[in-house]
């Protein structure tokens, strides 16, 4: 890790030198909600003026650039008797992700563990992940953010550059050799001791802004103990089973595979679609038996996967505390509330 | 001063042999041909399948209890337990009941149909660990399908095992699978105990559920026999629960009982999460689990 500082005006230089020959994706304002507050989304940007590094959060994570909602795993051509399978990984160029918050970079690091680990690494993800230049940026915690509880408020790796606004300039962390090459062409300076202090003060200020918390102490054990707890039924009764929480989650990777035949009957495709464990037929098997027919068991399963199973496998939770699921949930179910109720805490 | 980032090709080299850690093994499909279609009952068909590339065929090997993903391009892909002997490197056999889209199309597929195979996947029955011991193979309904592979292993290594018994129950006589093998099993000194839930008057065997015959068998054996016995169980959850509870009470340790769980995998490689029980991947940590592990899987029972 190399630290530099740069004047704020250098942001445009950085953007311009990357956008010229690459596709840059970053937070832009797409609309306002009914309260008049801006809505942001990760979209391709060509004009730095549109890039909103001051964004609060996005409704959807940047998932579509590394785990698209729907993508073909393979295509087939067939002549009726024989067939040929063609595999493609659905990416033809590198992407620059400009302005990810720490939680979203941590989400990628978590996904890496499952999707790029030693056991059956997934090339569809790996091809996209390896072709990503990630520029992180600092943020101001929102009322729904509980990333600090999940240890995802800072990020140690998994990005190329990280920009922290320390008042009159950016404090820059350079993580990769590729980023070093880019930063060489920016006017940067070696941080002074005052810059270090300012950086630490900025982070400390940010930490004071958190209002949502999740107590993760002994959570895997508690989830085991409270498997039969009546609170699951209560949350299940509220849950609509719509799967929105998974759709907006930066770490939900579950999917289903379906094959379809082209009308010519000469071509077929095998398509992967992200799925949600809260949707009714997630655990249904051929013949119609459903291992999780009730909404409560499906909702519970989602918490078990994120806060118990993943911890068991990787010593960390599969939740980064971005709070998107709680914000998007039509029934108003939030992670801090569910976990507090499982822990028997007062609501 | 522009910065065109380099495009990284994540799979620069073509691997000939596919290891689980290779990126290109993920969607690798062996092309295979259905060489025989044998109707076992009104509902189940036994397919014999041969990987077409001779070299791939030689390298394809599996352990009893493992499964493969069978694909019909354009129709779908689903997991099936391999139901044949692991020592047969020419063909694999799959016994399939027509219940869903893929299996219904498959039930109309003629000999010569070209299918795709991925795998083998999952854990297996630890047959080597059972050497020198007695084995109880207990199957309910379609549960006999994955057990045919360890049974074949026992037949081929009969001197390595002491007493071997198969306890097999189905709804009625028309549902009995692999009838053509019963005499061979008996000749290999494997005890075969059949029980039907509902029987015609011509049926001379017992009528009822599996625990009924199983109880008689375990009662008739002494403690030292039970102490050296392994159990392999496959069937619906209600069946394996009652069977394993009975065997545990009789004194078989939980880690000597193996249960084969069935779920609907979409990938077979620990990615899609569709087969998760609690938060355990049936495709990676299973489908064969020892009973202690199954007991500790939330929502398995």
Structural write-up:
The complex is a heterodimer of chains A (347) and B (301). With 347 residues, chain A is of the alpha+beta class. Chain A has 2 domains: 2-67 and 80-208, no CATH class; 219-342, no CATH class. Helices cover 31% and strands 22% of the residues of chain A. Chain A is built from 11 helices and 12 strands. In chain A, the strands form 2 sheets. Chain A has an 8-stranded mixed sheet, sandwiched between helices. Chain A has a 4-stranded antiparallel sheet with strand order 5-4-12-11, with no helix packed on it. Chain B has 301 residues and is of the alpha/beta class. Chain B has 2 domains: 24-121, Translation factors (Elongation Factor Tu (Ef-tu), domain 3); 127-296, 3-Layer(aba) Sandwich (Rossmann fold). Chain B is built from 9 helices and 12 strands. Chain B has helices at residues 54-59, 101-107, 144-156, 182-187, 210-220, 223-227, 237-250, 282-285, 291-296, and strands at 30-39, 44-51, 67-72, 76-81, 92-97, 114-121, 134-140, 164-170, 190-196, 229-234, 257-260, 288-290. In chain B, the strands form 2 sheets. A 6-stranded antiparallel sheet of chain B has the order 4-3-6-1-2-5. In chain B, strands 9-8-7-10-11-12 form a 6-stranded mixed sheet, sandwiched between helices. In chain B, helix 5 runs parallel beside helix 7 (237-250). Chains A and B meet through strand 4, strand 5, helix 3, helix 4 and strand 11 of A and strand 4 of B.
What strand line-up does the widest sheet of chain B have?
Answer: 4-3-6-1-2-5
Largest contact between chains: A-B, 69 and 53 residues
The CATH level-2 architecture of the largest domain in chain B is identified as 3-Layer(aba) Sandwich
Give the oligomer, counting copies of the same chain as homo and different chains as hetero. Answer: heterodimer
Write the layout of secondary structure elements.
The complex is a heterodimer of chains A (347) and B (301).
Chain A: E1 2-7, H1 10-19, E2 23-32, E3 38-44, E4 70-78, E5 83-87, E6 95-100, H2 102-115, H3 123-129, E7 132-137, E8 161-165, E9 169-174, H4 177-184, E10 188-189, H5 193-208, H6 219-225, H7 231-238, H8 244-248, E11 255-261, E12 267-274, H9 295-314, H10 324-328, H11 335-342
Parallel strand pairs in A: 2-6, 6-7, 7-8
Antiparallel strand pairs in A: 1-9, 1-10, 2-3, 4-5, 4-12, 8-9, 11-12
Helix pairs in contact in A: 6-9, 7-9
Chain B: E1 30-39, E2 44-51, H1 54-59, E3 67-72, E4 76-81, E5 92-97, H2 101-107, E6 114-121, E7 134-140, H3 144-156, E8 164-170, H4 182-187, E9 190-196, H5 210-220, H6 223-227, E10 229-234, H7 237-250, E11 257-260, H8 282-285, E12 288-290, H9 291-296
Parallel strand pairs in B: 7-8, 7-10, 8-9, 10-11
Antiparallel strand pairs in B: 1-2, 1-6, 2-5, 3-4, 3-6, 11-12
Helix pairs in contact in B: 5-7
């Amino acid at each position: 890790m190399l630290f530099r500082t740069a004047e704020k005006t250098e942001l445009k230089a950085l953007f311009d030198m990357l956008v010229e020959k690459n596709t840059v994706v970053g937070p832009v304002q797409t609309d306002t909600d009914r309260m008049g507050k801006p809505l942001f989304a990760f979209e391709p940007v060509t004009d730095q003026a549109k890039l909103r590094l001051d964004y609060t959060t996005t409704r959807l994570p940047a998932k579509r650039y590394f785990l698209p909602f729907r993508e073909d795993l393979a295509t087939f051509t067939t002549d009726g008797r024989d067939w040929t399978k063609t595999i493609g990984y659905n990416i033809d160029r590198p992407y620059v992700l400009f302005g990810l918050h720490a939680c979203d970079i941590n989400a990628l690091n978590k996904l890496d563990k499952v999707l790029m680990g030693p056991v059956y690494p997934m090339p569809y993800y790996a091809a996209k992940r390896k072709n990503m230049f990630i520029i992180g940026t600092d943020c101001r915690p929102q009322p729904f953010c509980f990333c600090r509880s999940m240890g995802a408020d800072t990020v140690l790796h998994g990005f190329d550059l990280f920009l922290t606004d320390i008042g009159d300039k950016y404090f820059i962390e350079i993580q990769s050799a590729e980023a070093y090459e880019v930063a060489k062409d920016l006017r940067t300076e070696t941080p002074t001791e005052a810059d270090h202090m300012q950086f630490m003060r900025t982070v400390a200020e940010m930490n004071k802004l958190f209002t949502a918390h999740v107590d993760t102490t002994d959570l895997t054990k508690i989830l085991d103990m409270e498997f039969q707890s009546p609170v699951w039924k209560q949350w299940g009764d509220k849950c609509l089973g719509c799967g929105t929480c998974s759709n907006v989650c930066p770490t939900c990777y579950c999917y289903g595979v379906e094959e379809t035949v082209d009308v010519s009957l000469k071509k077929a495709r095998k398509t992967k679609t992200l799925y949600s464990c809260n949707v009714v037929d997630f655990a249904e098997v051929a013949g119609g038996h459903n291992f999780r027919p009730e909404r409560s068991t499906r909702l519970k399963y989602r918490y078990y996967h994120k806060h118990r199973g993943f911890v068991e496998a990787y010593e960390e939770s599969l939740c980064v505390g971005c709070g998107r699921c709680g914000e998007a949930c039509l029934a108003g179910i939030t992670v801090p509330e569910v976990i507090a109720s499982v822990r028997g805490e007062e609501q | 001063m522009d910065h065109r980032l380099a495009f990284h090709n994540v799979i620069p080299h073509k691997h000939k042999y596919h290891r689980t850690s290779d990126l290109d093994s993920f969607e690798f499909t062996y092309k295979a041909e259905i060489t025989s279609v044998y109707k076992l009952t009104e509902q189940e068909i036994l397919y014999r399948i041969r990987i077409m590339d001779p070299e791939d065929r030689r390298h394809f090997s599996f352990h009893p209890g493992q499964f493969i993903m069978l694909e019909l391009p354009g129709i779908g892909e689903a997991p099936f337990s391999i139901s044949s002997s692991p020592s047969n490197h020419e063909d694999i056999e799959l016994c399939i009941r027509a219940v869903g889209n893929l299996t219904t199309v498959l039930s109309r597929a003629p000999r010569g149909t070209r299918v795709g195979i991925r795998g083998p996947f999952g854990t297996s029955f630890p047959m080597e660990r059972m050497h020198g011991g007695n084995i109880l193979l207990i199957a309910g309904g379609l549960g006999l399908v994955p057990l045919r592979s360890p049974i074949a292993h026992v037949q081929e290594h009969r001197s390595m095992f002491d007493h071997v018994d198969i306890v097999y129950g189905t709804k009625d006589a028309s549902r009995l699978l692999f009838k053509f093998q019963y005499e061979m099993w008996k000749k290999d000194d494997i005890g075969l105990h059949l029980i039907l839930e509902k029987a015609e008057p011509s049926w001379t065997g017992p009528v009822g559920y599996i625990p009924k015959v199983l109880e008689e068998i375990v009662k008739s054996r002494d403690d030292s026999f039970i102490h050296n016995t392994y159990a392999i169980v496959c069937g619906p959850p209600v069946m394996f629960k009652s069977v394993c509870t009975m065997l545990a009470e009789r004194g078989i340790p939980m880690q000597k009982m193996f249960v084969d769980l069935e779920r609907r995998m979409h990938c077979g490689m620990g990615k899609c999460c569709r087969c998760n029980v609690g938060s355990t991947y049936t495709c990676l940590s299973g489908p064969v689990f020892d009973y202690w592990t199954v007991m500790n899987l939330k929502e398995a029972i």
